[in-house]
């Protein structure tokens, strides 16, 4: 466990325990539901079904993040989960970072940066040589965060029906 930023966050890898799985599953669901709302046209209703085909961990957190080479990190403050991020094997020595989510009441205090930095450290420790991710074009804050940590444009590894910015970092 590592404490980081001006606001103290404990960063830890979630285990396969029931309680940890529930925390991870809830963070992924919040991420997905926020994404659906963000992709909604003004005055429209969020269409969760439009993005669920791309996010199997919405229904099965353990299958993705308790697989070999995968992990899900959580940032906690005073025993409360503030956010999380997943890392999973893509292919060979390339991993994918996904579902970076910081709950709105905890945004702006460094949890996102701490989660990304810690995910890079864990990826290196697990022998990955490259990390890829994609982010909605509207998420200018996270895009700036990733770029500030050395991520650069790359070819997309997924096909979507919506626009994303694909990024990669050689570890």
Helix and strand arrangement:
Blueprint: E1 2-4, E2 9-13, H1 18-38, H2 48-51, H3 61-65, E3 71-77, E4 80-91, E5 94-102, H4 111-125, E6 130-136, H5 140-148, E7 152-153, E8 164-170
Describe the structure in your own words:
The protein is of the alpha+beta class and about 170 residues long. It contains five helices and eight strands; from the N terminus they run ββαααβββαβαββ. It is globular and about 45 Å long. The protein starts with a strand and ends with a strand.
What is the gist of this entry?
The protein is α+β, with helices and mostly antiparallel strands.
CATH class: Alpha Beta
Determine Rg (CA atoms, Å). 15 Å
Q: Please state the oligomeric state of the protein chains shown.
A: single chain
How much helical structure, as a percent, in the residues? 25-40%
Average pLDDT figure: 92
Low-confidence stretches: 1-5
In whole angstroms, how far apart are the ends? 22 Å
Counting structural domains, the number is: 1
CATH topology label: Aminopeptidase
User: Which superfamily, in CATH terms, is the homologous superfamily?
Assistant: Gcn5-related N-acetyltransferase (GNAT)
Q: From the 3D coordinates, which CATH architecture would you assign?
A: 3-Layer(aba) Sandwich
Give the overall silhouette. Answer: globular
> Would you list the SSEs in sequence order as H and E?
EEHHHEEEHEHEE
Q: Could you say which structural class the secondary elements and strand pairing correspond to?
A: alpha+beta
